[in-house]
Specification:
It is an enzyme of class 6 (ligase). 32% of the residues lie in helices and 29% in strands. With 76 residues, it is α+β, with helices and mostly antiparallel strands.
Length: 76
Amino acid sequence: MKARVHVMLKNGVLDPQGEAVRHALGSLGFAGVEGVRQGKVIELDLADGTTEETVKDMCEKLLANTVIERYEIELV
């Protein structure tokens, strides 16, 4: 089984990487981009029987900084 964890900064948290990407897109001639939020995707190969609750514990303890980031778990 696989799990994908999508980690993004919470709304209201400044995203300097996203702002740099937005600026660079404008410099390359891509008009109309008003905002960019950058995140990460973590793909886990899990042993049979691993629960979504276990993946949630992984996120809470290591994979996401829950003070400034939110995460979504996708079991594949």
